[in-house]
Design a protein that fits this description.
The complex is a heterotrimer.
Chain A: H1 2-13, E1 20-27, E2 30-34, E3 40-42, E4 44-48, E5 52-59, E6 64-68, E7 73-77, E8 83-88, E9 93-99, E10 112-117, H2 119-129, H3 135-145, E11 170-172, E12 178-180, H4 183-191, H5 214-225, H6 231-234
Parallel strand pairs in A: 1-5, 4-10
Antiparallel strand pairs in A: 1-2, 2-3, 5-8, 6-7, 6-9, 9-10, 11-12
Helix pairs in contact in A: 3-5, 4-5
Chain B: H1 2-15, H2 30-65, H3 67-75, H4 79-104, H5 108-138, H6 150-153, H7 159-165, H8 172-211, H9 221-246
Chain C: H1 29-33, H2 38-66, H3 77-96, H4 99-112, H5 121-144, H6 157-161, H7 166-193, H8 206-238, H9 251-285, H10 292-306, H11 321-349, H12 358-381, H13 383-389, H14 393-423, H15 429-456, H16 470-500, H17 540-553
Helix pairs in contact in C: 2-3, 2-4, 2-5, 2-16, 3-5, 4-7, 4-8, 4-9, 4-14, 5-7, 7-8, 8-9, 8-10, 9-10, 9-11, 9-12, 9-14, 10-11, 11-12, 12-14, 12-15, 14-15, 15-16
Chain lengths: 265, 250, 554
């Protein structure tokens, strides 16, 4: 029983590599969901069937807990750090979404619906509810407006490291620590920069704690994650990337509408 | 049969009062009383260790997270005052041990002398602590009230500390974490000082009781147990001192 | 149920309560308030704990009433939060933790080890006063507007996001914590140093062993909670701290420190319950507890394991997967000593001559409910299933099965069992049997539906819930009313029996513990002369021989 339970536990909390990542921010007393395509939802989560969905969860204030009983999925939303969980929906329908960690007055109002759709419906939904900008594009706008690019650029005399391809790369910090630049690292480096200085750079970056919301941080992280070679290309990222055409078993794939398709890197 | 026993009871209870006045009558012998109270004191100290343990754990975790802030924060502490306080406490432990010895040897005068000395040293410790805290107050290093991290953003603005350590300026986010250091500094030394205050209060009580000869008649359990408490408070300081003052000095 | 009974009462026409006993020794309020007598302090505790139990229980009734409908109909969400928080705080810190140790334990432990009193009577009294101060602070908090953190005080919710009386509640628990530290400390010292001649460790009744284990937990666990709450209070006061990530703190650190106490705390609550059951089961089966040594050491084993399982409250909180693995394994290990106890009690009953007096009915109730509570604990301890079940009504049901079904049953069992010793009078047997059965039925009606609710995913601490859960909630509320009757009855008939109960005599149950060999109610000094333990614990043959001797001598 112990072994079985533990295997299950490891499986639920270790997302597969090809999972689609959706960000969830808990806040007194609502769930804010950020799709990579820039769709925002409150107290609702739309997902397609037949695809592993990874949720990256964080809280903006106190402990919350993101729970979808029907999928046997639950993960605490902790202020100040990312947690993640994954699932794969099989049946279209509407399911309950609860906050299960007591979080204050309207704890019991912090509920919503998980809407599971067929991949086709999902694509339609994505198209209809897009805000016109992907999450990464939001991030890019922030990146520019906070003047991050004043230091983090490709010029040889740049004061900050170039962030292209930084995601998932091995970094050596000034403390000598070798670390993988994952979501959590990127987030921390924005909020508490001085502990996360890459070797060879001066600790001059100001903290952005309290200046950007959790959604802003998420947008920035998403932007940095998608920086592949240089900035320009990234603008071409768009919503159609979210549901790649080469899904394993989705046979009757309709070609994505032409309008959504832009130049891919 | 219950009635049978009840009638004899009063007389029996009276008859059992053939023991020294300081023996509480639920104990069979003085030795048992001594053993029991002594054992209780050790258990209590165990509780205290767990109590401070929580603080130590928090300190170690935070220090690990915000190492530079904790290093520069500790530079603000005066090693001179810290060391002299350690010396004061060790001396007071010595006089306390001598006090217990004097009580055991039925020497009332030396007992009074040593208890008095311990009291003076205890008060001296608190006095020095006050000086240190006062300095923090003036430098705006008391967390939560009017905290300022200027000394860490620009160490040169604090010439006394600067000329000794030549600290580099901390990045703003790290400098803010020095407040965390001072929070724990005040929580730990404050909790320790609270124990000292209780100890000093008890010393006054012991002193006046000792004047009536209460502890030099062979029954010195209270003095002995208080001695254990005093040494314990001392030992806590022996841990606090390196953690707060020394560990990240150079 | 057979008519057979073990009860042997003295002839009611001639018997009377001994004139000289701990109750009649001195009169006046002051003689009670300044007493050092462990039996009087136990009585004070009994009165105050009962008081807080009924406050906690009426809050529970309010919760159940509110949950009758899916909407927030009876009270606002905010009020609901305060009610369940106060219910948790009062029940956990002011009832469950001190219930058996501070009342029954206080009353019987010195007698069981053959001592005149606890080692430190003044500290004992002090701990009662601390308890009362804590109680007053909690009542003040309620009067002043309550607190709505949940009894777990999750940071940073408790430190910066609520404007309710977190500080007074925190300090109340701090004070109550010291009350339980002192009680535990007193027990340990007494058990170590005050045993009468011949009372070796393995002749101690199992009650003493279990309470000893619980006391160890109190002494070592409670201070960690105390310092944690001090930090929470400081953090609230100075808006800086070690637990709120907005100030650079670590909220998980709070969870670790809190559960380091609060997991052992549930063993502080249940171990004394197990202590009572060992006594009762043996007495009413007329057999020595099967595997005495195993039961004794299983108590200590539970106490030791208790310190190494705290992180199972945090499986979904993002501790590393491998840490979960270790804690899950350790959690499952706790089931082993618990199971040893259950099996040994069952074997004690096997081929015993069982009679079903009220304490035994409660004890059997305990064994059934605790087994269910314990087994569902394994589902929660198993990491995979925990993800789904935690923070739902499954947890609520599990906790109440263990605590209410276990501990409260044991408490009532113990109260009935030692009532004749305490007051010198019997409680009315028929109505109390009725109450025991009512409690059992009401309890199952109340909490069993909650397991199902939990499986379906209804989250806990919800003032309003989706309508499809209503049926089971109505069921649960209905059960709670039956349970309420079950709790009111003992209060009424026990009070009645103080005046009108039958005279109990020294040893109505024909039990073997030293406490039964003295008069009821006992003398202030407990024994006329220091007893000498010359037989093993639960030696019913010895008891028979004693009685034959007495008959012969008369």
């Amino acid at each position: 029983m112990f072994v079985w339970g533990s295997l299950l536990y490891f499986r639920i909390y270790t997302p597969p590599a090809n999972a689609m990542n959706i960000y969830v921010v808990g806040k007194q007393w609502m769930w804010k969901v950020e799709h990579p395509g820039g769709q925002h939802e409150i107290n609702a989560l739309h997902v397609p069937t037949g695809r592993p969905i990874q949720l990256t969860i964080i809280s903006q204030d106190v402990f919350h807990s993101f729970s979808i009983p029907a999928f046997r999925v639950k993960r605490e939303a902790i202020p100040g750090r990312f947690t993640s969980v994954w699932f794969q929906a099989t049946m279209p329908g509407t399911y309950h979404l609860f906050c299960t960690q007591y979080c204050g007055t309207n704890h019991s109002q912090m509920i919503g619906d998980v809407v599971v759709m067929t991949p086709d419906d999902y694509k339609k939904w994505l198209r209809e509810s897009t805000s016109g900008e992907s999450l990464a594009q939001d991030g890019e706008r922030l990146f520019a407006s906070l003047s991050c690019n004043a230091c983090h650029n490709t010029r040889p005399d740049a004061r900050g490291p170039n962030l292209a391809n930084v995601y998932n790369s091995q970094l050596t910090l000034t403390s000598g620590l070798a670390i993988t630049a994952d979501d959590a690292f990127l987030r921390e480096a924005i909020l508490n920069p001085s502990q996360h200085i890459t070797q060879g750079y001066a600790p001059i970056m100001p903290t952005y704690q309290g200046q950007i919301s959790e959604e802003g941080v998420i947008a920035l992280v998403e932007y940095i994650k998608n920086l592949n070679s240089d900035y320009r290309i990234q603008q071409t990222l768009n919503t159609t990337d979210i549901v790649p055409e080469n899904e394993g078993k989705a046979a009757p794939t309709t070609p994505a509408p032409a309008g959504q398709k832009e130049v891919k890197p | 049969m219950s009635d049978h026993t009840a009638t004899g009871n009063g007389a029996v209870a009276e008859a059992q009062h053939e023991h020294p006045s300081y023996q509480r009558h639920h104990f069979e012998t003085v030795d048992q009383q001594f053993d029991a109270t002594n054992f209780a004191m050790w258990l209590f100290l165990l509780t205290e260790i767990m109590f401070f343990g929580g603080l130590f754990v928090s300190y170690l975790i935070m220090r690990n997270w915000y190492y530079p802030a904790f290093v520069e924060g500790s530079h603000q502490l005066s090693i001179l005052w810290g060391t002299s306080n350690t010396a004061v406490l060790i001396c007071s432990s010595f006089t306390m041990a001598m006090g217990v010895w004097a009580a055991e040897m039925h020497r009332k005068k030396s007992l009074l002398l040593f208890i008095g000395l311990t009291f003076v040293l205890g008060v001296a410790f608190l006095g020095i602590k006050y000086i240190e805290w006062h300095e923090k107050w003036e430098k705006h290093h008391v967390p939560g009230i009017h905290y300022s991290d200027a000394s860490f953003l620009n160490p040169a603005s604090d010439p006394e500390v600067y000329k000794e350590y030549h600290d580099k300026p901390l990045a703003p986010d790290m400098a803010a974490k020095t407040e965390e250091y001072f929070f724990l500094y005040f929580a730990m030394t404050g909790m320790h000082a609270l124990h000292m205050v209780i100890g000093v209060g008890l010393l006054v009580y012991i002193f006046f009781r000792a004047r009536t000869g209460a502890y030099t008649n062979g029954h010195f359990t209270f003095v002995e147990n208080f001695g254990l408490y005093w040494h314990f408070v001392d030992i806590i300081w022996i841990f606090l001192y390196p953690l707060l003052y020394l560990i990240s000095r150079y | 149920m057979s008519e057979a009974t073990v009860v042997s009462l003295p002839d009611q026409s001639t018997a009377r309560i001994p004139k000289m006993n701990f109750i009649t020794k001195e009169n006046g309020l002051l003689s009670w308030l300044l007493t050092g007598d462990h039996k009087r302090i136990a009585t004070l505790y009994l009165v105050s704990i009962t008081f807080f139990f009924f406050i906690g229980a009426s809050l529970a009734a309010l919760i159940r009433l509110e949950l009758l409908t899916p909407q927030t109909s009876l009270m606002a969400a905010d009020t609901y939060n305060k009610v369940f928080t106060m219910h948790g705080v009062i029940m956990v810190f002011l009832f469950l933790v001190p219930s058996v140790p501070a009342t029954i334990g206080n009353f019987v432990i010195p007698m069981m080890v053959g001592a005149k009193d606890l080692a430190l009577p003044k500290i004992n009294l002090l701990s009662w006063y601390l308890y009362v101060i804590a109680g007053i602070m909690v009542i003040y908090t309620m009067a002043a507007g309550g607190v709505d953190t949940g009894w777990t005080f999750t940071t940073p919710l408790s430190t910066h996001y609520l404007n309710t009386h977190v500080i007074t509640t925190g300090l109340a628990i701090f004070v109550a914590g010291f009350s339980s530290i002192f009680t535990g400390l007193n027990f340990i010292v007494t058990i170590h140093k005050m045993r009468c001649p011949g009372m070796t460790w393995f002749r101690l009744p199992l009650f003493v062993w279990s309470t000893y284990a619980a006391s160890l937990l109190m002494v070592l666990g409670t201070p960690v909670l105390a310092i944690t709450l001090v930090l929470v209070v400081l953090e609230r006061l100075f808006h800086i701290g070690v637990f709120d990530p907005a100030f650079g703190g670590d909220p998980l650190l709070f969870q670790h420190l809190f559960w380091f106490y609060s997991h052992p705390a549930v063993y502080i609550m249940i171990l004394p319950g197990m202590a009572v059951i060992s006594e009762v089961v043996s007495t009413f089966s007329r057999k020595r507890v099967f595997g005495y040594t195993a039961v004794a050491f299983s108590s200590v084993a539970i106490a030791i394991f208790a310190f190494f399982v705290w992180a199972h409250h945090m499986f979904i909180m993002g501790i590393s997967n491998y840490a979960s693995l270790v804690f899950s394994l350790l959690t499952m290990l706790v089931a082993v000593p618990s199971a040893i106890k259950i099996f040994n009690w069952t074997f004690t009953m096997y081929k015993g001559s069982i009679t079903f007096e009220t304490p035994m009915l409660y004890a059997i109730g305990f064994m059934g409910l605790f087994t269910i509570g314990g087994l569902t604990g394994v589902f929660l301890g198993s990491t995979g299933t925990d993800i789904h079940l935690t923070e739902t009504y499954f947890i609520v049901a599990h906790f109440h099965f263990v605590m209410v079904g276990g501990m409260l049953m044991a408490f009532l069992s113990g109260i009935h069992f030692w009532w004749p010793k305490w007051t010198g009078r019997m409680y009315p047997e028929k109505i109390s049997q009725f109450a025991a059965v009512t409690t059992f039925i009401g309890f199952n009606f109340t909490f069993f539906p909650q397991f199902i609710l939990g499986m379906l995913g209804m989250p806990r601490r919800y003032a309003a819930y989706p309508p499809e859960f209503q049926a089971l909630n109505v069921f649960s509320t209905a059960g709670a009313t039956i349970l309420g009757v079950g709790y009111m009855l003992p209060l009424l008939y026990l009070t009645w029996s103080l005046k009108f109960g039958k005279i109990a005599g020294n040893n109505p149950w024909q039990a073997t513990g030293l406490e039964w060999q003295t008069q009821s109610p006992p003398l202030t000094e407990n024994f006329v002369e220091t007893p000498i333990m010359d037989h093993e614990a639960y030696d019913y043959e010895w008891l028979e021989q004693q009685q034959q001797k007495e008959v012969a001598s008369v």
